[in-house]
Structures are given as C-alpha cells and as structure tokens.
Amino acid sequence: MKKLFLFIAFFFAISNLTAQIYDPVSFTTSVKEIGENKYTLSIITKIDKGWHVYSQNVPQGGPAPTSFTFQPSKNYKKVGTVVEPKGHEVDDPVFNMRIKYFEDKAIFTQNIERKTSDAFTIDATVFFMVCNDNSCLPPGEKEIKFTFKKSDVPVKNEETATIATEKNTDLAVKDESITKQDTTNNTTDSVTIASKDTPEILKKETETASGKTAPEESLWTLFFFSFLGGLAALFTPCVFPMIPMTVSFFTKQSKTKAAGIRNATIYGIFIIVIYVILGSLVTAIFGADALNALATNVVFNIVFFLILLVFALSFLGAFEIVLPSSWLTKIDQKSEMGGVFGIFFMALALAVVSFSCTGPIVGTLLVQSASQAGIAPIIGMLGFSLAIALPFALFAAFPGWMNSLPKSGGWLNSVKVVLGFLELALALKFLSNADLVLQLHLLEREVFLAIWIGIFTALAFYLFGKIQLSHDTPSTHISVGRLSLGIIVLSFVVYMIPGLWGAPLQYISGFPPAKQYSESPNGFGNAATQNTEKNALPEGAESGPNGIATFHDYDKGLAYAKKVNKPVMIDFTGYACVNCRKMEERVWPDPKVLNVLNNDVVLISLYVDDKRPLPKEEQVVSKISGKILKYTGQKWSELQILKYKTNAQPYYVLMDHNEKDLNKPSAYNPDINAYYEWLQEGVRNFKK
How much is the pLDDT for 156? Predict the structure, then answer.
C-alpha cells in the first residue's frame, strides 16, 4: 500500500492534460513520369472526417478558394493549370450561391516539363480554407515540395537539359505552417494558422519556461502519467497475480532460459501492440472532430462525467465491468496454437481477463488523451502498456526477483477502492466544466470543494479501516503504508477546508471553479467589503479575479481605457480553461503583477466559451464560417481568430487606444518574473 501515494498524482494531473487541436488537412506529394520530359505533380489532400476544403473556383463573396503557387524556376516549365477532382456541389444557403467543395480525399494535379538533368526541387504553396458543419478555421498556407534526383539520361530539347527517369516517387511534405500551441493543462484547445501576415511568435511553437516546446512537453507529460496509470493497474487483483503465473509458464515451458526470456519479451511486446492499436482506433474515431468540443462542449463533459462515474462505482465494488465470456473462450482456444501467434493470443487474453480492473484506468486515459491532438491516445496507451509489459520481461530475465513480490491478498482490492475514490473526484471536474460553460452556478466553488472534502474524507476513513466495503477482506490491523497514505489524504482534506472561506488553494488551482465563481467571492463574512468594491468599480466593469476591475465587453473596456489614458490588456479566456485559472490563482496574485493589473492597465476578459445568447442586434454573419454568431463566446472567439490567428486560451494582448499591439502577445506563462517583465514592456511602450 505504501506505493499507492505515487498514483494519486496521476489522477490529479491527468485532467490537466491539454486538449490540443491539430490541423484537419494534410498534404502529401508524388511525381509521375507521363512521357518524354513530361511529369505530373500530384498533391494528395487528406481531409479529416466531417471537414471539407473548397474548390479553386468560388464565386465572389463566398469562402476562400483553394489556390496553388509554384515557385518559378529555369529547371521546369508548367504545362497548363492545376486540375482538381470532381468534388461536390451544393447550394449554400448562407452564401446564397452554388459552391464546390472536397471532403475525405482530393488529388490535385499539375503537369510540368523538365528542363535539366541536375537534381532540383519545386517549391509550392497551398492556400486553403477548411470548414465543418459547426465552424471554419482561418485561411492558411502550407508549403509543399517536389524533389527530382539527378539523372544521367539526356533531355532532348532546345536547352540540352536531361530528363529524370524516376516514377511514382512518394515524397515527404514540408509542413511548417500549422503548429500546435501549448495547452498542457488547458481545457480549451488551440490551433495556430500561419499565413503571410501571421506574427512571427505564432509561427513557432510556444516555448515554456523550461525551454521545451509545448506539444513535446504535453505528450511527455501524458506519457509519464499514463505510465503511472499502468503501474497502478499492475497492483490490481486482475493483473498482479498474473505476473508470477505467466512468467513461470514461459520459463518452465521453454527449453532454455534464453528462450523463456525471449517468449516473455515477445509477450510484453504484444501487450504494448494491443493497447497501442486501441489508442490508434481512438485517434481515428475522434480525429479533428473532437477539437474544442471535448473541452467546452456541455454534452461531451456530461458524457465524460457519466463514464468516469460508472468506472468509479465499478472500482468501489458496486458491479464489475466484464467483456463477454465468449470472447475469452475464443481467445483461449487461439492461444493454444503455440509459437508467436499463440503468444499474441495469450497477451490478448490478459487484456480481456484484466478488463474489469484496467478498463476504468484505460478509459480515463482515453477520455483525456482523445481530447488532445493527433497521436495523444497512442502515446497514452504506449505509456500505459509499457508499464504493464515491463514486469513480464524483467521477471523472466531475473526470476529470483519474484521472491520479493508481495503475496496476493486483500490489499489488491484496497488498491481498486482507492482508485475508485480518485475516479469519483476526477469525474466531478467534468460536471463542473459543463456548469461553468452554461454559467448555471449549480456547482460553485464551495459546493465543489465540499464534495471533494467529503470524497477524500471517506477515502481517509477507508484507509484507516473505519469504513469497509463488501469485497474487502476483514483485518485486525492496518499496514504502515496504508496508515501513511491515510495521513496524506487526511492532510489534503485539512488543506482544502480553508478554501470554503476563500483560501486560494494554489496546489489544486484549475480543479475547483475560480474564486469569483462562488457564493461569496471575497470569502464568507466579507459581504460589506464586496459591496464597497462593487460600488467603486467603473461603469460596465465587474470584480474579476483577485478583485481586479474587469470588463467583459470589448468596446466598453476600450472606451474606459481611453478615458483614464491606460493601455488595454485583453485576456482571451474560458470558463473551462484550467491554465487560465492557474494564471489567475498563481501568477496574478503576486504583488508586483497584481499592482500592474490593478493600476497600470485596463483589463478586458473575453470568455470564448460563454454560451449566453447575443442580443439580436449583435448576431452577425461570421467572416470565418459564414454562419450566424449566436453566442457571446462565438463573438470573442471570432475576434481572436481573425485578429491574432489563434484560438488558444489563455491568450494575453497589450494594446494601445488605436488597437495596435504594444508587444508580442503572451500565452500561458507560469513564470511570474517573465510575465511581469512582459507587462512592464507593454506599459513602457504605451508611455513612449
């Protein structure tokens, strides 16, 4: 039990992992010889399910058309123009015109004539706009490249060049225009579309204080905590007893020790393969369609809450999640084949048999990683399965180590129960996200903390042996490890209690709702102070994080900034944004930072996931999607995307009264000194 405290960090940190957005369109290229000196350049466009790009020919006033620009060169000559596939034509009710678009896959071709036998490349640029049924991303550019190798075959033309003989050469695509920005712990997502007018800071991955790029750091974090999740799964009654049984089977059934180690290693590799395939399937199913919805969509958050609630109840012993027994019977029969195929089905049998214990952990990981970009579910399953697979190979190589393994017993069920309590606490975060986005105020900060205090108090009593569940083995004493973990959990409960009276609780910032989303934002018993501050606020402003006067309307905030002659700080934020809360609760309260925010700038906080309906007179047609903007958050999201080519939150902009940036915008930056210097730089530039 003393190892269990390591796993608490896993469940606390895993919900902070970012739901990054990735580009739903990818381009690959190929070259095909079609005759003497003649080649066809193919641009294979793969489009994620639910998205589409438009034709090269779009009527004026419609969406941005797709276009291709080839860098001129003496090494080749274009023959004709780019030919596009058939596509689909629809009568678009928004643009009131007939528009052609492509979905799933589209191949554009351009014929050329080669003019030299020397090696050369053709650089080209694709300009495009991608949309789905809900939204459009800003128009972007991607660079593509076609490579021709040196040829010894003469070219018979007026320039005595030579012709290349290579055919059907598949080439890598240089794709630097779409980058992912860090939302490591952010519940809103980000996509940065680079174009000719995109600020240089947005053309590079955001760098954190550690110097690592955000996507790399996010995936490494995901891998690390997924590995911890795998270790937690090892210490469950469905997996732990299988280790000595399986290792003994391989070592005793193999003719030599080397063969036993080899078979156990292959077994472990197949465990990794099975779970990575599962992660790949999730990646294919979710794809780009998950996007921001996984972080801010009410339905998704409620569904995730229910999924984790079911997992938690299963771990607590209310019922057992099992796969159909017929599956295991068929897999067992296959495992008797022997050889590599038999080992594969043995690994598959382990995955099926242990599902009742590993399913909730795997499900939690997939829920979290599916809301991230690209290969996140694969990375998550790689980390989880590696932790599961390693013991089988290690104990096969060093069988003497098995003597040090603790004996199976009631403590294995205790591990499941502890994990069930943690799943229950994590589930509440998703329900809180839905409440925050809808601004229902049903699960305010005090209520959230009260429920967490109740959950972890019950966990502490369970660890101390004061609560027993139906599947527990009766015991007359508790181990030192269990006692130690109980003390840690009880200490955590004591730490949370002052939060009911307004304590910041920085160690868990981002989990509970923000202090201002509270029955008493200034703490119990401070109503008078709250009313005094409210009366002193500028007209149109509210008391925001840390009591800072905050505008939620762009025009009102800008007008006030002009009146008091201060620069504007725009805070693109979200109700369900974890990193936003971390900045507000860890960085903004610093005295020097708070002084600037209170006295030197006018803060305008724009919530991009605000679901409150816009007044009819403010409901306009989106310049991005062509659809009516119905909600307040859509209005601010459109402003951010159009002006700053990103929808990352948090995103901070310092600007003057002419709406010109005073310095480079800043994203999530937990380095207090660096953030303070950024604020000072903008204020100094405003005073020049």
Answer: 52
Q: How far is CA 86 from CA 56, 91, 101, 126, in A?
A: 12, 16, 9, 19
Instruction: Report whether 463 contacts 478 (CB < 8 A).
Output: yes
CA 584, 453, 188, 201 torsion: positive or negative?
A: positive
How far is Cα 678 from Cα 592, in angstroms, rounded to an integer? Answer: 12
Question: In a 10 Å sphere around its CB, with 0-12 CB exposed, 13-18 middle and 19+ buried, how is residue 213 labelled?
Answer: middle
CB 88 within 8 Å of CB 131: no
Task: Look up residue 283 and give its amino acid.
Answer: T
Place of tokens 């003057």: 656
- pLDDT of 528 higher than 80: no
Query: What average pLDDT is seen over the chain?
Result: 75
How confident is the model at residue 6, as a pLDDT? 40
Calpha distance 405→641 (Å, rounded): 55
| Amino acid type, 384 | F
* Strand (E) or helix (H) holding 687: helix 672-687
> What integer is the mean pLDDT of 192-203?
34
* Dist CA 548 CA 30 (whole Å): 56
Query: In sequence order, what DSSP letters do the residues of 182-205 get, joined into one string?
Result: --TT-SS---EE--TTS-GGGSSP
Token pair for 505 = 């609780």
* Contact in structure between 239 and 229 (CB atoms under 8 Å): no
Residues contacting residue 173 through CB under 8 Å, at least 6 positions apart: 26, 27, 28, 29, 142, 144, 145
- With a CB cutoff of 8 Å and minimum separation 6, the contacts of 53 are 25, 45, 47, 66, 101, 102, 106, 128, 129, 130
Cα gap 365→403, rounded to integer Å: 32
User: The tokens of 194 are what?
Assistant: 């680079």
Tokens representing 410 are: 């009631």
Q: What is the pLDDT of residues 540-582, one digit of tens each?
A: 888 888 889 999 999 999 999 999 999 999 999 888 777 788 8
- pLDDT tens-digit series, residues 45-75: 999 887 888 898 888 767 778 989 998 888 8
3-state secondary structure of 595: helix
* Count of C-beta atoms within a 10 Å radius of residue 314: 21
Report the candidate in 26, 31, 23, 100 with the shortest Cα–Cα distance to residue 63.
Answer: 100
The residue with tokens 């919900």 is 15
SS3 29: strand
Cα within 13 Å of Cα(17), Cβ side: 34
Q: Is the pLDDT of residue 599 over 80?
A: yes
Which one-letter amino acid corresponds to residue 147? T
Q: How far apart are CA 355 and CA 560, in angstroms?
A: 59
pLDDT exceeds cutoff 90 at 605: yes
Rg (CA), the chain: 29
How wide is the angle at C-alpha 610 spanned by C-alphas 288 and 506, nearest 5°?
Answer: 90
For residues 569 and 277, give the distance between their C-alpha atoms in angstroms, rounded to a whole number: 46
Q: Give the bridge partners for 550, in sequence order.
A: 542, 603
Say how far apart CA 135 and CA 180 lie, in whole Å: 18
Task: Output the 3-class SS for 199-233.
Answer: CHHHCCCCECCCCCEHHHHHHHHHHHHHHHHHHHH
| Residue 268 C-alpha from the chain's centroid | 28
pTM over cut 0.70: no
CA dihedral 297, 367, 214, 133 (to 10 degrees): -40
Going by C-alpha positions, the residue among 464, 494, 459 that lies closest to residue 482 is 464
Q: Calculate the alpha carbon distances from 672 to 578, 601, 603, 681 in Å.
A: 17, 17, 18, 14
Nearest-10 crossing angle of helices 339-353, 325-335: 160
